[in-house]
Design goal:
534 residues, alpha+beta, Beta-lactamase, Methane Monooxygenase Hydroxylase, Chain G, domain 1, 9-stranded antiparallel sheet, 16 helices, 19 strands, globular
């Protein structure tokens, strides 16, 4: 097998992949193409690194408070495991320590591996997401739907927890070891619905177990073999498995619960028919490769697409497919009220807050273990945490870790880059603001610009603004929202002007929206809105 290195245009991604079994669809380069968004701060990574000592203390203090026997954690930046830490014990009687290669069970974080497998099969033309699930699992043909107008259950419903099955965390956790035959018998008996398919989010382990059966049926391989050959091996995840007995004893974290002021060991659950919903075991080092692979899908770009799964499919997993109810919470790490809104993608939770437009995450909990992974696609930063305590709850301390990174000033998103058409339009509009010219005004305008507001009215407005603020410099820094929209501030003799433009969906793109306004004394140019002032 030849190896290759996935490269982000914004930063190096230090994960080595083995693509022998993966053929990706390579599209022609688009006729109208822009540079990918990129980070503007050359000191960004060194700034983020200043938070690492505090992050170590946060995780270790949490483990002590929560009675977690052992933990492993990591910070992924631009595809590299930039920082790793561990504390405590993987096995209590011997007091054996933990490192980045200690293997923990990650429970429901397995679901993203299952979703990735389904999308890979989809990309290969072997199934469609809107196919009825009963096409691949015949036992589902006997389902009794809750209403006569219910749609048939589809693969898409299963991927996004929209199948209408009841939430089943307490029950599902104990089903890992059931056999294929036992699952077949369960399916034949039917499944009760809490909602008709396709109308609401409700978390279902059973649904992802069914997806594992679809992976096996379509690929002709056992689920564990398919995932190993098509995801784990290509990503170099050599410590990751679905069977606890395959982990070298010296590297396996034993699971515990805290009861009556003591740790009680939980017996390991064997891999079985429900493994696709929560059976995976992995190390922090391996999991950092997986998180880095997901992060490498961002930003969209025209580099060779050589991963075991297409970048576009990874991005599809990381966008909301089924919305969940919004919530308003108080972040203890940064005392303020925050709006959280989003839902479920495919095997991943997706949301946005006042501070972050795009957050991707998943937690995992089983008897003996709790895990969490979270990343910020626009920021190129991810956090991983593994523990060997039943349902270790990592969310709150991860919030604290993110806040520590944010305080460094380095946790900033990539900046969109303007298209050549937008850059040219900015130059032309700046000239027009400085001195009206009819031919220039005609050359920049989409056909609606002077129908929405007459050319004479626009000319008069600019002349009045120039009389008020005096001569202006060509233009200041360009605040680009996307390839075809941006704004900038022109410094003038007696003030400043803010100019905003949007280009039309025509070739060539021309200005469909133009606004020029004077900034009042002390007024800052418009900035992205947040829920809370900073």
């Amino acid at each position: 097998m030849r190896t290759f290195r996935a490269i982000l245009s914004a930063a190096t991604v230090a994960i080595t992949l083995l693509p022998a079994s993966a053929k990706t669809v390579q599209s022609e380069r688009p006729a109208f193409e822009t540079d990918a968004p990129r980070f503007s701060d050359p000191e960004r990574r060194s700034r983020l690194a200043t938070a690492f000592p505090e992050i170590d203390a946060l995780f270790r203090d949490f483990a002590t408070r929560a009675h977690v026997p052992g933990i492993a954690f990591g910070i992924v930046i631009d595809g590299e495991l930039a920082h790793a830490g561990a504390a405590g014990y993987r096995e209590m009687p011997s007091k054996a320590g933990i490192d980045s290669d200690t293997v923990f069970r990650i429970a429901s974080m397995t679901k993203s591996f299952t979703a990735m497998s389904i999308l890979k099969l989809r990309d290969e033309g072997k199934l469609a997401l809107d196919d009825p699930a009963e096409r691949y699992v015949p036992e589902l043909a006997g389902l009794r739907y809750p209403t006569s107008d219910s749609p048939l259950l589809t693969i898409r419903h299963l991927l996004s927890h929209a199948e209408g099955f009841p939430e089943d965390n307490p029950w599902g956790d104990r089903q890992l070891a059931v056999t294929d035959q036992q699952m077949t018998e369960m399916l034949r008996k039917g499944i009760p619905f809490s909602n008709p398919p396709g109308i609401a989010y409700e978390y279902s382990n059973y649904g992802f177990a069914i997806l594992g059966r679809i992976v096996s049926g379509v690929s002709g391989m056992k689920y564990r073999d398919y995932v190993t050959a098509n995801i784990l091996e290509p990503l170099g995840m050599t410590s990751t498995t679905l069977e606890p007995s395959s982990v070298p004893p010296a590297r396996l974290a034993h699971g515990y619960r805290w009861e009556n002021d003591q740790w009680i060991e939980e017996p390991p659950l064997a891999d079985g028919a429900f493994g696709a919903m929560g059976g995976m075991l992995t190390s922090m080092r391996d999991l950092s490769r997986y998180v880095a692979f997901h992060m490498s899908a961002w930003p969209p770009r025209s580099d060779p697409d050589e991963g075991p799964v297409r970048r576009a499919s990874l991005r599809e997993m990381q966008q909301v497919s089924r919305t969940a109810p919004a919530s308003v919470t108080t972040n203890p790490a940064n005392p303020s009220t925050e709006l959280n809104t989003g839902g479920y993608g495919f095997g991943l939770r997706v949301w946005q807050t006042c501070d972050f437009r795009h957050v991707v995450a998943h937690s995992g909990g089983l008897p003996g273990f709790g895990s969490h992974m979270r990343w910020f696609p626009e920021h190129g930063v991810g956090v991983i945490a593994l523990g060997n305590l039943t349902y270790t709850s990592w969310s709150a301390v991860t919030d604290e870790v993110i806040e520590a990174l944010r305080r460094t000033g380095g946790l900033r998103p990539r900046r969109p880059q303007p298209s050549p058409a937008l850059t040219d339009a900015r130059e032309a509009v700046s000239r027009l603001v400085r001195g009206w010219d009819d031919r220039l005004a005609e050359s920049i305008a989409a056909d609606n610009l002077y129908l929405d507001r007459s050319k004479e009215s626009r000319r008069q407005e600019l002349e009045e603004l120039r009389a008020r603020v005096g001569t202006c410099q060509p233009h200041g820094p360009f605040d680009v929202e996307n390839a075809l929209r941006g704004q900038w501030t022109m410094q003038c003799e007696r003030g400043a002007l803010q100019v905003s433009i949007t280009l039309a969906p025509t070739m060539p793109p021309r200005v469909q929206y133009l606004q020029v306004r004077a900034l009042e004394a002390g007024e800052l140019a418009a900035a992205p809105l947040t829920c809370e002032p900073r």
